[in-house]
Queue: 3 jobs
Job 1
Amino acid sequence: MSTSHASTVSGDVSGRRDAARALLQQPIVTAASERETFDLVRRHAPALKSMFADRLGYRLVVEPTFARLIKAPLEPTSPHRALRHADGTEFGAITYACLALVCAALLEPGTGERVSVDDLLEQVRADARENGIVFGDPVSEERNLAAALRVLEEWGVIAESGHGDEVSGDEVRGDEPHLDVHRDLLSQLLDTPLHGMPGPAAALTRHEHEPAALRLYRRLVEDPFVARDELDDESATILARDRHELARMLENDFGLVLEVRAEGALAYDPAGVLTDEAFPGSAP
């Protein structure tokens, strides 16, 4: 193998790994906000799609303007990674309900790629009343709706477009704030349509019968620590038998280092970017 070819192969592996790491950190990457990362993901899209699907059971969608890594539900013992308000507090049930209602309103048939904020919020409030959802006092309602809109803006689903020049009846509505809606990305926020599901639990149980090797690898990637006594017998056997192969895969795929001990295993990031907790930890 020539030096130049070896350098190219090494660069391809490094670039694919960097793209995979970026998607783990940020499952939605848009060309508008993260051009360099988006171009890297597009360049390695075939290899990334195959790796995420085969090893983690994740689906990677890459379109001309965005990339979306759609993850499978994690184990109940996995870390709790909630969405957060601007002040750092976690979303509560009502805020998540606001987010779902905003998405539903944006997906309403007939909704275009540009919407009035006032009309959107009016639809959200109407849907909330119809479904018996109470937002609370006006201050809480405003805070929760603002948080939902902020998250969608951060994801690249909506963007402020200033004031409109629309005509409604006999009234020119040129003073209302409007939003541009990235409808293609909006439709990819969930991995499957909810209207065909019998209930919320169905979204979590669809992955129960996946191969043990896939579930184990997913836990090693997503969890800061996997306790041995939390593993089923098949997963524990795979960890003991294939630990060296798992270590190689984790290093090649994501730059993670696998540590296996009597208590369990963890795959940590020496760069400290993907790991939730510093490892090794500081002594008490």
Job 2
Amino acid sequence: METSAPLSFDDWCVKKAEVSPQFQYWYMVMHLECLLLVYVRSLCDGNFSLYVPVLKALAPWFFALDHTHYARWIPVHLRDMITLHQRLPHVAKEYDQGSFIVHKTTRPFSAMAIDQAHEQNNKIVKGDGRAIGLMQNPRALLRWMVAGPEIARVIDSFETVGSDNNTGKDQVRHHEHTRSAQVSFASEVRALVQVIKDLGNPFMEDSGDLLGLDTRDIPDQAVAKTFRWIEKLGQDQYDSYITQRLIERTTPVSDTIPKKQIGLVQPATHKDSIQSDIDGSIAQE
């Protein structure tokens, strides 16, 4: 008798998700969390070849969860980045070398997105009250936009020279590469493990219901069904947006994006009370 080949881990997860709403929900959450971590890595490492595909994988979620502004402009940004090698190969070459992000230090895994670097510079400039009322004065705002980064650089240089920690070792070590950071991380891992032991491993739940780990509440069946097709719904709307607004151009980018208003939280019924009702019915019989 021939035995079927064992499933790969990914295939097993897909098969398990088809029969267990609880597994499907947490598998989806873990997948989304991994995408976010990969996105952060692409920025911290300055890895453009990783940045584009992971942002493309995240884009459908902006549609599914009604993040309108991101849903409108992320596809435009992605199209620019995907076609960059054909349109502007010299810029694409710089991006491939990591020039699409900002390195404020020589520490590894510490690069940041350009908008985040701007926010940090703004904070430095605003710290001395220089940015108050700039939005009401276009000329002052323009001067601040030009001089702001240089002011931030001078302040940072002054603080670096006066710092006691300005050593070569600190300049090449990641800011979380310290004993206190590692102890804190280990403590959080142990806390998570303890919570799973106390409340149960969601990936080992064999119930046919979706339930809260702490309250054991069971949401409406419509919520469980929503989680099954929410990712596909976002992907379909993303594909439609790309086709209609960026390829065929039959709809302007500025046109309204209809919201899905998906109800992810509904009145719940406690699992224990349901089980009590079942036990009571059995006892009466």
Job 3
Amino acid sequence: LEITDVLRGKDHLTNTEKQKFIYKYFGWNEPNFIHYGIMSIGSEGKISKSEIKKGIDEGKFTGWDDVHLLTLRALNRRGINPQAIRNYMLNLGIKDVDIEFSEEALYFENKKFIESCFRYFFIEDLLGLTIENFPNMVVRFPLHKEHTYGFRTFDLVPENNKINLLIQKSDAEKLKEGDEIRLMNTCNIRIKKADTTTGRVIADYVENSHGPMVEINGKNGEKKKFHNNIIQFETFGFCRVDKVKDNLIEFYFTQR
């Protein structure tokens, strides 16, 4: 029959014994039988084709690439590198025991391919920050800490010696009057009022506290760009750029 190898699930072990008997009876060369266990996903409907099809028909999923699924199309849309999936499966190997799919192990492999992406800031739950006595300054943020991709540059121009910025609400809730904190790559500020119920934190600029990548009284502009459609939001995680239309950029979360 010129069959050298048979690869199939261990639920066919009984069939294998029957077929071995037939091969032996007719004097045929017996192929190498390899059996593997079942990989369970853990989330019902995330991988079952019939359940996914039903979910699409019912409007539960937008399609086979819905990012809530674990289909190859969905993983690709989220920014999971195909080689990362291949490496994950190769590391698993072929075993005759049942195993459970590990998203964390897949993310570990994927991070090797995306960790060199550009980095930006992300505020999930924003709160206003007013800094008083603020000088005119240009601030540069590296697009990556280890790679020489260049910088994002912001011209911070105060009005009436005040500038309005945004901070994460969960960070603001930890602040109290008199605290001195550092804004990344920018300067130190001293908290004057931290009432998160009003939606704004008031602070003072700490003189001569600006960092090495800050130019006082300079001017420049920011140039937006993305590298391979994958970016990293500082302290949040990696995301894939799915759509860019006018001033709206739509991302899908990839992993932390």
